[in-house]
Amino acid sequence: MSENVRGEESLLSRGSFFWYSWPGKEKGMKKIEKNVSGFRAANPEKLRRARFIDRPNRFLVRCELEGRPVRAFLPNPGRLWEILLPGTELILSEDGGNETRKTAFTAIAARRGETVVLLHTHITNDAAEWLIRTGRVPGLEGWAVRKREASFGRSRFDFLLEKEGRLLLLEVKSCTLFGHELAMFPDAPSDRGRRHVEELGKLAGEGYGAAVLFLVQSSRPSCFLPDFHTDPKFAESLFRAKDRLRLFPLAVEWNAALELTGEPKLLRVPWGVYERHGGDRGDCLVIVDAREKGFWAAAFPAENLSSFSGKALRRNGKDFPFPPESGGSVKVIPIRSSLPGSKNINDSLASCASGEVVKDGVRFFAFSEPPMANPGFVEMLLHRRTDLLLSELP
Question: Which residues form the SfsA N-terminal OB domain (predicted)?
């Protein structure tokens, strides 16, 4: 028996089964909400609308529901900067509290403008399975879901697919970060995501079928790239594996009832944009906590962006002109690009700041509240990191 056959038998003998439960399926399988028109992310009778207040930790949000503050579990470890702004509408599921959880609500989705964005990463996998089973993923028509959580050696992947005796390992990633034209993943550094890509790339090089499905939670974008601003290591790993892995950046649309609607579409992957702008240079955006005095923000061009961090700036304070009364924390946000941008960034900061000082040639802009809670600031950052990079595409 060949090594490939033994490997495939190993794939098929491991992993846990997870099948959809619709009318006629056996009892005991997990139930997936499914309506007559397609896939539904949650029971509509349990949905509640709330307004985001703040995020005490990665997996907890505080929000206002019918005039009272409530806490909700947030099953998404991403930063979600452009989504979780004060007053953002959250769609909660009222699941009830019990001994195993501290909150009675789960944040399922959020509304960003006119777009409903699914936040629940586990439901993303359920949606992906439904899309595959119903032939709605271009390029995966005819593939059947053989297993979920399929183990291979030390690794576990979201799906094992099968078609005419062929096998395909598939990993699914939920993409919530997008501008008008460009979607990116991940929105927070992801060692796990990078490891999955590298392991799948290695398996693909050994002759196994391997793919990644990026489920983009908006039908608006036309292009997709790895987020080289936030996680350059993940971006590099995906770029290196792109000729071995099958990539499916699939844009979907959700309605207010959390139903998949419209036709999913595959997005273009403009690798030339990554090759031009994905280097370790661009602009460094710095946010300084001035404690009771508010916050300062500044932008300046920089090489070797990976070497910049809040701790590094504090450690080398003599080389960085900190503004007055800025003894608090320092956040560094890289904007990788070959386009000159610090002047335009500073002009944008001036339009949403409450004041400005100049120290040693660096313009510092004052904010009374955290800049990441300022819609104008976040929109500027999102534009510089996404759509602006596509300005030279034909």
Answer: 53-118
